[in-house]
Amino acid sequence: MALADEELTAIIRGIRDRVRARYPGASTTDRWRIPLPDLMPIAHARDAAESKVAAIGKVNPRGRGPLNALAQLGKKIVARLLDWHVREQVEFNRHVLACVEATLQALNESNRTLVEVSARMDELAVLREEAQELKDIRGHWAEWRQEWERKLFINETQFLRSVADLQGAFQHRATLMEGNFRDIVKVQHTDYLGALDRAALDLQKRFWGEVEKARREYERLIHEELRIVRQRAFLAAPAAMPASTAPQASFDYPRFAERFRGSEEYVGKSLQVYLPYFQGRRRVLDIGCGRGEFVELMRAAGIEARGIDLSADSVARCRQKGLDAEQADLFDYLAAAGDGGFDGIFCAQVVEHLPPERLPEMIRLAAASLRRDGLLVIETPNPECLAIFASHFYLDPTHQRPVPHPLLAFYLEECGFGQIQVQRLSPAAESMPALASLPEDFRAAFFGGLDYAIFGTKL
Description:
The structure is a single chain. The chain has a seven-stranded mixed beta sheet, sandwiched between helices. By secondary structure, it is of the alpha/beta class. Helices cover 61% and strands 12% of the residues. It has helices at 2-22, 40-54, 66-81, 83-191, 195-231, 253-260, 264-270, 275-278, 293-300, 312-320, 330-336, 359-369, 387-391, 405-414, 428-431, 440-446; strands at residues 283-287, 304-309, 325-327, 342-348, 370-381, 417-427, 449-458. Strand 2 (304-309), helix 10 and strand 3 (325-327) form a beta-alpha-beta unit.
């Protein structure tokens, strides 16, 4: 009896599993569970209807005996006589059951589809959670990076301020020492004469020489520290560029310069301002020498100087004057000049002709060609003066774009120059008298010098 119960239980379990597989219900426990309709009542109703349809045309069984046999015969005769009458009803019932069967199958397919959709929605939910976690991670990373960059900027600013404070303190102490020393020398000069006075003057010169040397060493140290903070790496070598970077014009450029820049006498007078800076220099290079006004000025002052220019006509004109000039591209010439070949380099009205991306390369090569304490002077149109855009800068079709002096100062600092100074030249009001009617402060701010010169000493 127990064995029969177990077999019956197993049979019932198997039937239940087959029914559940054929008619999936709402038993899913997924996260995105979709309630499914229970199709079992429809299946039971269909089975009951099928049993009724199958019994149409059959006669109910009765007990044995002649009377019963006669009754059964009568029923069969009546059933056959009525067959033509109920045939359409039977066909209708069968079609209805077929429709119910098809509907049940469609509902089963719908249930299976919903179960699959539920599984897909579970997968999408998992992917959405992962995407949200990734978004949170990216947000945390962005916040951390922003905070890190802010702290790095604060640290760099504090460091630069500390360096500036140290430099200011050093200059202040040097000024105090200068005042005290001058007072002492003045007293000694008053009290003692002759040899003592000469010894004091000699001692003063030696002292200021040592102070100047210490100041330069201090500036070199500051320069190296600033390079470490700003760059954190050495400057990479520039990419290869076209060799020729000088003005290339399809017209007579020397004649153009004669008309619009001025005569040789005019340019030579305007260059007198640079003579004190190059006094005592032994070997000076003029980049873009043109007609040779600067080289001629150096020769008159007893300073050895030579010029380079890409224009063959300009070089020939310089040689006619007996000047040392050579036709060469400035980048090739400076690269081949070697380390420390000059103690002074002058470059006037050239950098505005260069492609902007090559200007740092030119300054780097100039720094490599200078000795220690060598002087680099660059003259170029002043973009702070609005007048140059109305009458000067765009007159030359070979100009690339103006170079602001803060940018040139930055390039000089990056390439190892110190003691950087800027001097504005050729006031616009001298060539444009109408500017005199403007307020003085406005004229100085927006219509100052047409050109400027920047001075830098190699550290």
